[in-house]
Amino acid sequence: MTSRLTLGATVAATVLFSAVVGASAQTYEVTKLVPGSAFHGVHGLGIDKAGRLFAGSVAGAALYEVDRNNGTAKILIPTPEGMADDIAFAPDGTMAWTGFLTGDLYSRKAGGPIKKLASGLPGINSLAYRKDGRLYATTVFLGDALYEIDVEGVKPPRMIMEKMGGLNGFEFGPDDMLYGPLWFKGQVAKVDVDKAELTVVADGFKVPAAVNFDSKGNLWVVDTALGQLVRVDPKTGAKKMVAQLKPSLDNLAIDDKDHIFVSNMADNGIQEVDPETGAAKQIIIGKLALPGGIGVVSDAGKDTIYIADVFAYRTVDGATGEVSEPARMHTAGGTLEYPMSATAKGDDVILSSWFTGTVQVIDRKTGATREMMHGFKAPHDAIRLDDGSILVSELGNKSLVRVSGEHGKDRTALITGLEGPVGLVAGTSGDVYVTEAFAGMVSKVAANGEKTVVAKDLKMPEGIARGPDGKLIVAEVGAKRIVEIDPQGGAVRVIASDLPIGLAGAPGGLPTNIPTGVGVDASGTIYFSSDVENAIYKIAKK
Description:
Layout: E1 4-5, E2 15-21, E3 24-34, E4 45-47, E5 53-57, E6 62-67, E7 72-77, E8 87-89, E9 95-99, E10 104-108, E11 114-118, E12 124-129, E13 135-139, E14 145-149, E15 158-162, E16 171-172, E17 178-182, E18 187-192, E19 197-202, E20 208-213, E21 219-223, E22 228-232, E23 239-244, E24 249-254, E25 260-264, E26 269-273, E27 280-284, E28 294-299, E29 302-308, E30 312-317, E31 323-328, E32 341-345, E33 348-353, E34 358-363, E35 369-373, E36 379-384, E37 390-394, E38 399-404, E39 410-415, E40 421-426, E41 432-436, E42 441-445, E43 451-455, E44 461-466, E45 472-476, E46 481-485, E47 492-496, E48 518-520, E49 526-530, E50 535-541
Antiparallel strand pairs: 1-7, 2-3, 3-50, 4-5, 5-6, 6-7, 8-9, 9-10, 10-11, 12-13, 13-14, 14-15, 16-17, 17-18, 18-19, 20-21, 21-22, 22-23, 24-25, 25-26, 26-27, 28-29, 29-30, 30-31, 32-33, 33-34, 34-35, 36-37, 37-38, 38-39, 40-41, 41-42, 42-43, 44-45, 45-46, 46-47, 48-49, 49-50
């Protein structure tokens, strides 16, 4: 991943690759169809005394400095220490941040070394400094507790209280009380951290995600599900919706001039909101958030790419690159659960997420969810078989699982003992092909569960698709290339190399991280996702 990411032109310069087979040579043109963006999902925001804006990414495992005038971002602290779900500044200017997946909390004084203040707190989420310089943090989603953190990193975290209801992005108020949203209760509360007493300040929110105070003592709240920025009187609890934004809001920060900055996970974006008028100015935004698996369908010569975009489910026009969004995370009544893989065929788009253990079947034409199945162990892909059942590559159990029955309750292992099963594609006569990322193989699995190795000695093969000629197209992520594999003899041919794929796995996650998706249209044109750039590429024969 580059250290500086900008929102650039919509189409990058094309790159030509030549694949040689025997005496013949086939040349391919690689074109960027959807431009990339900064971040990989943007979460916590912080502003230092100099007015510089900082933003954190969990999946991207990096902490960024944002140029709010130019709309660009550069990595300030890279992975692994840079994972930041929230950012806070101490009275002396020390910056602290939380590594949600790793359970680590870090700090750094200006120009100084990074110091680990706490560890062993999975789900460590929000943090804030008190006026006296003491530091407090909460675990949310993977825990539900409030701690005081030793700013020297010597003493272990001291638990103050637990089971509050998801005390998320919080801040200390002028009265030295800690104010924050209760994500799971739709309320904003204040906590006396010395007495461990919690009092509800305002309620009636859908999913409040974060709060912050302005210089006048107003409390500002972002409601992620409704996409609203709300002003709250902390004394009376009276609320006023000031700005209607898009859902999937995550955090906010307010500078000394009361400019309000709001982050949006699904937009990969940050907006500046005028507190008086509610007018929003986009500082930075992406077409995509963090694209993983993709499926491609050709309808009457028109290609549509269906994308598991982690914070959204999106589609792309294969000719124009136009992006549409049937659904995004954290919307009122929404059903998405961090989709990371996608396949598309017939009337189905099937999304899966190893993070939430879910497989979701969506009507390709209406966008409605038909089935939502839970309880899988790190599912990395899923396809519909000819008999109507669904086959899931369950990496956590090293297996391919056949799923059928009401709500997918009937689950039978077709094969076990696979080494990192990731991508799936149907073959002929009821067989399927699966990439075994950890073994570096592509295997064929028959309907009776018998396995045949098709190709080996690959480096982290992930996404897989089948071309109109029956050849397999595979994202060999460890080698940063797309290859074609003959399923008959296993011959491997490089189609394109030196590709921006293979985002380094976030600490606390899996080596596969965000699976690189590939798809092929009816004419043999190949599409693939770039998790490094948050882009979609197109490979066409010359």
